[in-house]
Specification:
The protein has helices at 3-22, 35-48, 69-77, 128-139, 142-150, 325-329, 568-572, 606-611, and strands at 57-64, 89-96, 99-106, 111-117, 158-164, 178-185, 200-205, 210-216, 256-259, 262-265, 268-275, 279-289, 294-310, 322-324, 349-356, 362-374, 379-385, 393-398, 401-410, 413-421, 427-435, 439-441, 457-461, 464-467, 469-479, 485-497, 508-516, 532-542, 548-554, 580-584, 619-631, 641-653. It has a 19-stranded antiparallel sheet that branches. The protein has a 4-stranded antiparallel sheet with strand order 1-2-3-4, with helices on one face. It has 8 helices and 32 strands. It starts with a helix and ends in a 26-residue tail after the last strand. It has 3 domains: 25-117, Nuclear Transport Factor 2, Chain: A, CATH 3.10.450.40; 128-232, Nuclear Transport Factor 2, Chain: A, CATH 3.10.450; 261-487 and 519-670, Beta-galactosidase, Chain A, domain 5. The chain is mainly beta. Helix content is 12%, strand content 39%. The radius of gyration is 27 Å and the shape is globular. It binds 2-acetamido-2-deoxy-beta-D-glucopyranose (4 copies) and copper (II) ion.
């Protein structure tokens, strides 16, 4: 670099720094808060509420304050974005002297524009710092050391995780912001979740940082440390199965373009952001329609809203295990740095995530999201025409898709969340579960020893039961098909008997009976009960053949809750009572389990909002979809679990006039080795 370049560089950055300090930095209204903005939030709040280790004010959530939708849309649709973007603001939830405080900070006026105390149930997301502080506290707690000694364990080999405690009918006045500390024993294994130390109840109040309860009841057989290794460097031969190195060749480089947080690829354009609670946020996804020569809106905003994991062991050491991973711990905060070539394939582009720590200090998770093209040997479409004499036709187009991925590791589980875009217009949302089971130590090593007793799980190795549980992964999808005014159509497929008068040997056939849901109640769907297509349509936009432009849901497994409706965890997680819900758009209704999920009472859930039974026909509506898994552990899930996948697809239905990928040219891999079958 020549000195001249250097001078110019300094000059340019000086201009940028000075202009950005006067007004909000330019960019996209959905851009995540930058490091500079997070620091500004801290500075502005510090003027009203002293921040630091000696004060009782901590940041629990800091994120972009959802900008007004109409302002975003007028900015977005204006030519060259000449219309001013909405004001840029941060939404903060803090703990302030034992209360939850909600603050909105405005960047252009550099002021707090809204400030109120949360009244009602539930607590905000835990911060990493307070979880670490709680662990330190227990290590200094004498009765804990005594219990460890009594069990003949070595305290240096103990590690902790923090567990939320749920809610079991206590009144609001009776609850405190308490977590339960779960001890695990290393001693020869790093696979800590497979070596729980059971029988200790250790509660820590996070607001006052005190151990508020300590009970030591029993000692249970500790599962042995051996056989739990999963690090390649420590495993012993033989290795296998052997996989040939596989790479996708991209001789011309990746086919997508990342401009700030905007991703453009094939016919898609969308904004990709990070939130400490949701993880990835996709917004303003639109697809180019060659017939009308413009981009058409599909998804205004889509993201993970909650993950609910109830365990099925009602005993003292387990009953509370009913987690709301995003609301309790933060599905973005627990997201991990992705590894090139293994978490994401060659050619992937990575993005960092930044969030505010305990005292508002920006904390970075490098490479927390990745974007890559996936070619997995799938066929986009094909046809062989063999019936025309003297003419053989085969046309085939290989399928390529674009994936935005995040992996969030909430304790023992690793959740892989993929947003996949297809040139045909589909958006597929995939959830992969992997990681390590939560297990319970038992005396048994063989199934035959159990007898009639109910052990709520499967013996996966000596003295170890993988406990039965569910995973309910709920997404919030604000679809805006060609605009905000949409309807939800349940298109039932019904069997009909042929009329006597019709001259046919057939006795039956099926036909469609579409019904537009008028209210939220009519749009609650349990999958698998009926043959029906679920379609979000824009009734104001029809194809030239009169069909309403829409996107339908191609659902995954029909998995719903099995807990009793009056069981406390299910009251709190009533948003899982249906797989699909439609609500009227409301920018405050974002988190299916409530804004304050920790110890919530179920009074601010999607199920409660839906009870308002608002009219939803030809309105701005939001779709909620829950991917459910009942998990009966098996021995293959030990010592780590091969990925278990689920998901669903949003597929255009009468959105285009014809096959949108008809004229997509086949990929030409001229540099690639010829694919000749070996004999
Ligand atoms: C808050 O302001 C006080 C007083 O100006 C200062 O000493 C302290 O460092 C600030 N804290 C943070 C986290 O900025
Ligand atoms: C928008 O920007 C493009 C490229 O800079 C320019 O050619 C075009 O004239 C602009 N249109 C308007 C309406 O300003
Ligand atoms: C306890 O564990 C520590 C750290 O792993 C080790 O250094 C120490 O020797 C152990 N103590 C006993 C009594 O085994
Ligand atoms: C939006 O949602 C919040 C939270 O559920 C609720 O308090 C508010 O009344 C709703 N607004 C409208 C206009 O329905
Ligand atoms: Cu599981």
């Amino acid at each position: 670099m020549t000195p001249l370049h250097f001078t110019i560089f300094i000059f340019v950055s000086f201009i940028f720094a000075s202009s950005s300090s006067r007004s909000a930095p330019p960019g996209h209204p959905f851009d995540p808060l930058t490091e500079t903005e997070l620091k500004l939030v801290r500075t502005i709040i510090n003027k009203s509420y002293p921040i630091g280790p000696n004060h009782k004010f901590t940041f629990q959530y800091v994120g972009l304050n959802e900008p007004d939708k109409s302002l975003v849309l007028s900015w977005h649709s204006s030519v060259n974005h000449t219309v001013k973007p909405p004001p840029r603001q941060a939404f903060v939830i803090a703990r302030d002297n034992g209360k939850s405080r909600e603050i909105v900070v405005d960047f252009s006026s550099r002021a707090i524009v809204s400030d109120k105390i949360h009244v009602g149930n539930g607590y905000p997301m835990l911060s990493s710092y307070e979880q670490e502080a709680a662990i330190e506290l227990v290590f200094k707690f004498k009765p804990f050391h005594d219990a460890v000694t009594k069990r003949g364990l070595n305290v240096s080999e103990i590690v902790f995780t923090t567990s939320t405690i749920g809610w079991y009918g206590e009144s609001e006045a009776e609850t405190e912001r308490v977590v339960r500390m779960l001890p695990f024993y290393l001693d020869g294994s790093v696979n800590m979740y497979l070596r729980p130390i059971e029988g200790m109840t250790i509660l820590v109040n996070l607001d006052v940082m005190k151990v508020t309860e300590f009970k030591d009841r029993l000692t249970v057989t500790m599962p042995k440390a051996n056989g739990k290794e999963y690090r390649l460097s420590k495993l012993k031969p033989p290795f296998g199965p052997t996989l040939q190195n596989a790479v996708v060749l991209q001789p011309d480089g990746p086919g997508f373009n990342v401009d700030g947080h905007i991703v453009r690829w094939a016919n898609w354009e969308f904004h990709l952001s990070f939130d400490v609670r949701a993880g990835i946020i996709i917004s303003l996804a639109s697809i180019f329609d060659m017939d009308v020569n413009k981009y058409r809106q599909v998804l205004y905003k889509g993201h993970l809203s909650e993950i609910f994991i109830p365990y099925m062991d009602p005993s003292d050491d387990w009953y509370f295990a009913t987690y709301f991973d995003c609301g309790d711990f933060g599905c973005g905060k627990c997201a991990v740095s992705l590894k090139p070539y293994t978490d994401c394939p060659a050619g992937a582009v990575f993005m960092d995530g930044i969030f505010a720590g305990q005292y508002g200090t920006p904390t970075k998770i490098p490479n927390v999201m990745c974007i890559f093209e996936k070619y997995a040997g799938d066929i986009m479409w094909r046809h062989t025409e063999a019936e025309i004499p003297n003419l053989e036709i085969t046309e085939v187009r290989p399928d390529v898709s674009l994936i935005a991925r995040i992996v969030t590791t909430v304790g023992n589980y690793d959740y892989i969340v993929d947003y996949e875009f297809k040139p045909s217009g589909s958006i597929k949302i995939g959830v992969g579960l992997t990681g390590v089971l939560e297990v319970k130590p038992v005396e048994y090593i063989h199934k035959s020893e159990i007898g009639e007793e109910d052990i709520q799980g499967t013996i996966v190795t000596d003295n170890t039961v993988g406990v039965n549980h569910d995973h309910f992964v709920t997404f919030r999808l604000d679809l805006d098909i060609d605009g905000t005014q949409n309807s939800f159509v349940r298109n039932e497929l019904v069997t009909k008997r042929t009329a006597k008068s019709v001259n046919t040997p057939r006795k039956s056939y099926w036909t469609t009976r579409p019904k537009t849901a008028k209210t939220e109640a009519e749009a609650r769907v349990k999958l698998g009960l009926k043959a029906e297509e679920l379609v979000v349509v824009n009734p104001n936009r029809k194809t030239k053949h009169g069909n309403e432009a829409g996107y339908r849901i191609l659902s995954g497994a029909a998995t719903g809750p099995l807990l009793a409706q009056d069981d406390y965890p299910q009251i709190r997680a009533a948003f899982t009572n249906y797989n699909v819900w439609i609500t009227l758009y409301n920018r405050s209704e974002v988190w299916a389990g409530g804004l304050y999920a920790d110890q919530s009472h179920g009074d601010d859930t999607l199920a409660v909002w839906s009870q308002r039974n608002r009219e939803i026909e030809n309105k701005d509506i939001v779709m909620w979809y829950t991917v459910g898994f009942h998990h009966v552990p098996s021995q293959e899930d030990f010592p780590t679990m091969p990925t278990l996948s689920g998901g669903f697809e949003l597929r255009p239905t009468n959105f285009f006039e014809q096959n949108p990928v008809l004229k997509s040219k086949p990929i030409k891999l001229t540099n690639a080795e010829k694919c000749i079958p070996k004999n």
